[in-house]
Amino acid sequence: MSGKPLPQLLLSVFSTFGVGGPQVRFAAIANHFGDRFRHVILAMDGDFACSERLSSNLNVDFWPLSHRKGQSLANRRMFRQILAITQPAALVTYNWGTIEWAMANVPRLARHVHVEDGFGPEEATRQLRRRVWARRILLRDSDVVVPSRQLEKLALEVWRLRTRRVHYIANGIDCARFANAPHTRQDDRLVIGTVAALREEKNLIRLLDAFRMVRENFECRLVICGDGEEREKLVQHAATLGISRDVTFAGHRSDVENVYASFDVFALSSDTEQMPTSVIEAMAARLPIASTNVGDVRTMVAAQNRRFVVPVDARSLAQALGGLLSDEPLRREIGAANQAHALNEFSDDKMFAAYGALFAAAAPP
User: Fold this and answer.
1) How far apart are CA 250 and CA 130, in angstroms?
2) CA gyration radius for the chain?
3) Which of 92, 43, 49 is nearest to 67 (CA)?
4) From CA 264, how far away is CA 327, in angstroms rounded?
5) At 105, phi and psi to the nearest 5?
6) Is 56 helix (H, G, I), strand (E, B) or coil?
7) Do residues 260 and 323 share a domain?
8) Domain for residue 193, yes or no?
């Protein structure tokens, strides 16, 4: 008597499994499919904080790594041994920090899916030649997932990957979760808010500078929700600007829908993004967006909101914030349009269907 066959194993490799956009998206996808897949998750830095987002019913193992940066050959041997031992239905890697796994998979031991969400500060304004060539060579026979049209264009025209191997899958969320949270207010001041990992490329220094300008003309406060290595630097910068009393560093929050519900305007100050999940969440929460013009943000928001997606500098961001704070009816109009657009374009069911079809393919086409 033969037993029920085991679900397909996905070996998912992250630079970090701390809480961030790619990790939160992975958790949503894994939770949605439940026992359809088994999972082994590897974090290159040993951080598995986002495991809190995973359902307790999942078949998932977390493996730490004892690799060394700069020792590609030794790492390749170790990674190849892991592939040989686990024999996954698919190796799924996330972003440049896991590219050595693509190298370890040559000659091919497992079908490879690479998800590219964007770039760190070193590639915020230009592509590094050696990385272009590495992607061009190592991802040639991989399925590459991109969440933005800008990245899709880059993958096809700069990395020169095959059209049939590049898959545009827009990020999606549970819009109802953010649409239904009750609005809360601490006091009479308007609230500018952001939800972000406190990393260099998010450039929250720019947001603090913009807030200082806006605060000269409006009774408002700033809430920064998230954690990361830049926190102390940001706290010190707020003190230097003399705005500490009006800035709240809320840290990590699992009830992020309630955080958005406390905002009047959502701000994004990044140097580089592609399709930020935080913008979609803010749209679903019926918020207007003031953002730097990065990635797909201008085309993500409703048409009424696009003039508040501005050049990448603090003064322009301050002007966008001021334009929204000064006009409550406009905020309401844009918020309603953003919410309708998010419900129509960025629901999680479309995302689940696309990833499910890609992960379930047991063999390359």
Assistant:
1) 39
2) 21
3) 43
4) 11
5) -90, 15
6) coil
7) yes
8) yes
The amino acid occupying position 52 is E
Within-domain flag for 365? no
pTM to 2 decimals? 0.81
Q: Which domain holds residue 321?
A: 175-345
Check whether residue 144 and residue 234 sit in a common domain.
no
CATH for 206: 3.40.50.2000
Sole residue written with tokens 């970090």: 16
Give the pLDDT confidence of 103-161 residue by residue, as tens digits: 999 999 999 999 999 887 788 778 899 999 999 999 999 999 999 898 999 999 999 99
DSSP state of 120: -
**56, two tokens:** 């307790």
Residue 167: both structure tokens together = 């898959």
**CB within 8 Å of 219: residues ≥ 6 apart:** 188, 189, 190
| Among the listed residues 189, 176, 256, 188, the one whose alpha carbon sits nearest the alpha carbon of residue 224 | 256
State the helix-helix crossing angle for 348-360 and 21-33, rounded to 10 degrees.
80
State the average pLDDT over residues 344-352: 92
Indicate whether 79 belongs to any domain: yes
